[in-house]
Specification:
three-stranded antiparallel sheet, 12 strands, disordered N terminus, 16 helices, nine-stranded mixed sheet, homodimer, alpha/beta
Chain lengths: 385, 385
């Protein structure tokens, strides 16, 4: 099936998002416009493409969907010129924007609930095709923690794994440094031209020869605090497993571990003294069932069998492209919105209580989301803002 | 049933070992003579009492059993005077010899495969009746390990547990010291008059007010290297669970953990840095399924429900006192011995291959053991020496 066929629609509606071929430059531009439009996150992006088959049609539908969802002001759709500027800047900066349907896109990342539609990448694209293990941990790591992260990264690299991490001070930096020569992938919270922390500029450059820097944010995006947890889902999403080395309670590394669990990835943790606050988080993970790691072999023993299996999404998404018939009537929409409030409610309950079809409920939620009125929580829970 | 009735035998042969009453002084002397005789260990002791009903009859049978087992020289039976001297020395040293059938005997210890028939005790007998948690670990412990052991002992003591340990330098000493005021039991590898290491003399004295020193060895016995692993089964046997804090590979603490598993007791371990050789053993235990412990609550959560259950032996012993009929004929004995060699073989296989009854096989093994010709291995395996 060619992209033209997808664009023309026809009886066999198949989402552009799922073709597995390469996008044309025009399609890439349209994808970029959709994901850079207001209120469109990765999840909404894929819902739109699932419903409209391609980014072109989704762009056209966006304003009306948002209006129906009750947007107070018209929702900003990313202008063509703005997306062109971003594509041009990427090209001149040596940055590829890989679409989630393309063969170069990291396979495991594609399987998470909300893969970035376009992943910005600098460096060696081959690194993204190899099995990865993430190593993450405390910024204020101990000397022993740093040494352990280095040893683990080196030994996993020797076993042909790419090391994924977040380029932070401490454990992340140590893991990248020890695997820079063999291949490591750093996931940034800001644009690829915003290396954070600044003192890791040289490390970032060193990574590029064998490995890669990736981000879902546009060039020029300065990372803010809220971007880091969101970024962490990509670190776990890229990897078959995540090793947490020295993590305090309520640390970013624990967020990455939580994402790993939700994504069906393996979670490992290095133990530490019960008296060391830097080990509280990692010891806690082990108590909750994470595999204790003292050497690379502990990780390899668990992930090797998984690498032999076909890569499958953690949660099977039943729908393909939605049938055009799933169009809520005005009363139906009102009834569903009435069921929503500031308290999170499960989508299953919405379907049950509204007596509408799941497809219709999804459309109404999509509209609300595009209108900026919907908040999504973990476990398929939603609420009104 | 009175002891006189047991001694007189009769149709209802019930072992003195299982009565649950107090021994007379004469009976205690006979028990001591049996266990202090050559080639009689705790397992053989209980087999003898199971077979002969009481120590008096066992003493009378000993020489003939050993002869039948092929002893080259006559086996030394502990003379009455020697046992009297030991009892007298114990009395004047404030040491009680508690028999495994008596109500003061620690309940959980009684349930192990090979409880000491007589446990020498100095101190507060009430301590032996309370639920115990063992805390064991490295002699060359780190400052952090020491502090953790102290904190854990104190917190478990506050939750009404008696702390059992081995009075060694490092973790053991720290655990005893932190719980001396509330009650702690030190299990010695030598006699109760041989405090090892010598610098723990003051600690041993401090333990006596609320807690106790116990040993299965006679007063005057200087501990040798081989006595320590054997002693470790008593530390785990006394306790509902064993916490290992800082244990290197192949350390004594791991032996205690292994005994705990065989005895059906809970095993806990404190995590440590993967780079610290002192944590290799404890981290390894966690990998194998031990519960990771960072605070007393982790132990309490596991052992509290167990304390509510009736105390039962790890392996149900099917036999009561053996019927006097289970007497092997000369050919039968020869056939069983022929099946034995320097390679360990299971007792089940012996029964099957010899086509003798289990009771007969047990008698032949008892004879060989008393003759000093049998070696017992783990998992009910035996071989000829």
């Amino acid at each position: 099936m060619t992209f033209a066929a997808v664009r023309d629609g026809g009886g066999d509606v198949r989402s552009e998002d799922r073709t597995g071929g390469r996008l044309s430059e025009e399609q890439r531009l349209e994808w970029l416009r959709v994901i850079r439009s207001d209120n469109v996150g990765p999840r909404t992006f894929h819902a739109l493409l699932s419903r409209y088959g391609n980014a072109h049609a989704a762009l056209a539908a966006l304003p009306e969907l948002a209006r129906r969802g009750g947007a107070i002001r018209p929702v900003r759709v990313c202008p063509r010129e703005e997306a062109e500027r971003e594509l041009k800047a990427a090209k001149s900066g040596g940055v590829s924007l890989i679409a989630s349907c393309e063969p170069d896109y990291p396979q495991r990342l594609r399987m998470i609930d909300d893969p970035p539609p376009l992943l910005a990448m600098r460096g060696n694209p081959a690194a993204l095709g190899r099995p990865m293990v993430a190593i993450v941990g405390a910024r204020n790591a101990s000397a022993a923690g740093i040494r352990f992260a280095e040893r683990l990264a080196r030994d996993l690299a020797a076993a042909d794994f790419i090391i994924a991490s977040g380029l932070a001070r401490g454990i992340d930096g140590a893991a990248h440094r020890a695997s820079a020569a063999s291949g490591t992938v750093a996931v940034l919270a800001g644009g690829l031209d915003h290396i954070y922390p600044p003192e890791h500029g040289d490390l970032a450059e060193a990574i590029l020869a064998q490995g890669a820097l990736v981000s879902e944010m546009p060039l020029g995006w300065e990372p803010h605090a809220r971007d880091f947890p969101r970024r962490n889902r990509l670190i776990s999403g890229l990897a078959v497993g995540v090793v947490v080395v020295e993590a305090a309670k309520r640390s970013g590394s624990l967020i990455t571990a939580r994402f790993a669990l939700e994504q069906g990835r393996e979670v490992f943790a290095a133990p530490g003294s019960p008296l060391d606050p830097r080990a509280e988080g990692s010891n806690g993970l082990i108590k909750e069932g994470a595999t204790l790691v003292t050497e690379a072999a502990d990780v390899i023993a668990v992930v090797r069998p998984i690498l032999g299996q076909p890569i499958a999404p953690a949660l099977e998404e039943p729908e393909g492209a939605g049938p055009p018939a799933a169009e809520p009537g005005r009363d139906e929409r009102a009834r569903i919105i009435e069921l929503l409030g500031p308290t999170p409610v499960s989508i299953d309950d919405l379907v049950r209580l509204s007596a509408s079809s799941p497809a219709v409920v999804r459309v109404v939620l999509l509209e609300l989301e595009l209108a900026g009125r919907l908040e999504r929580h973990g476990g398929a829970l939603v609420s009104l803002r």
